[in-house]
Amino acid sequence: QQQVKQSPQSLIVQKGGISIINCAYENTAFDYFPWYQQFPGKGPALLIAIRPDVSEKKEGRFTISFNKSAKQFSLHIMDSQPGDSATYFCAADSGYQLIWGAGTKLIIKP
Amino acid sequence: KAGVTQTPRYLIKTRGQQVTLSCSPISGHRSVSWYQQTPGQGLQFLFEYFSETQRNKGNFPGRFSGRQFSNSRSEMNVSTLELGDSALYLCASSSGTSGGGETQYFGPGTRLLVL
Q1: Nearest to A44 among B44, B48, B106 (CB)
Q2: CB distance from A32 to chain B under 8 Å?
Q3: Other Cβ atoms within 10 Å of B58 Cβ, number
């Protein structure tokens, strides 16, 4: 019940395309869902986050879509750029700790 | 504001030894969390300290321990190292006062190699 399942494990997208990463959770007590971005040699950094009272949040080229009934949320990166190449982690916050997905390695091909 | 700093950045140890890693949080942050990151396993939560007290703990053996000082700096100790302890150890800080939903600010990590 504490797991967050993230897919795909790796993703290759052409420059200008849309990158989509999906996450699913089971525990309905989770009330905050952040996405973190990690570049090689760096720690993860918060990219965008959403709470379950909204179905979508957009910040620039990055959008979180949230489906509360299906207990799923996804990250969409529009007009993907080579600089977006990184590992992306979804997470779910129970108020006590963050439960992390396993990560998606995204490569944007020029 | 200075970010989260971790020392050392790289460490090589042999099996059976012990190691201590250090983390200095962002000024004013009172919560420090530790994670183990390995390829394919993502981030595994070790423990969180808030105001010198362990507030949350993950599912790691007792060989993994930590502490936090009055200035919020934190140390993590791993005793009797095993080959499987080779990983990137990340520290993250936050204010710790919101009861969840806070941004965690990560340091660059300490890469530990156990031979």
Answers
A1: B106
A2: yes
A3: 15
Tokens found for residue B47? 């423990």
Q: How many residues does chain B have?
A: 115
Distances (CA, A) of B86 to B36, B92, B106, B112, B115: 9, 19, 19, 5, 9
Q: What single DSSP character describes residue A15?
A: T
Q: Do B103 and A34 touch (CB under 8 A)?
A: yes
A44 vs B109: CB contact, 8 Å cut-off? Answer: no
Number of C-beta neighbours around residue B103 at 10 A: 14
Tens-place pLDDT, residues B66-90: 999 999 999 999 999 999 999 999 9
Residue A61's nearest CA partner among A44, A48, A46 is A48
Yes or no, beta carbons of B107 and A46 under 8 Å apart: no
Q: Give A63-92 pLDDT, tens digit per residue.
A: 999 999 999 999 999 999 999 999 999 999
> Rounded to whole angstroms, what are the CA distances from B68 to A41, A60, B35, B48, B78?
25, 38, 15, 9, 15
What are B5-54's pLDDT values in tens digits? Answer: 999 999 999 999 999 999 999 999 999 999 999 986 789 999 999 999 99
Collapse the DSSP code of B34 into the 3-class scheme (helix H, G, I; strand E, B; otherwise coil) and give the result: strand
Average pLDDT rounded to a whole number, residues B97-101:
71
More reliable by pLDDT, B15 or A28: B15
User: Bridge partners of B90?
Assistant: B35
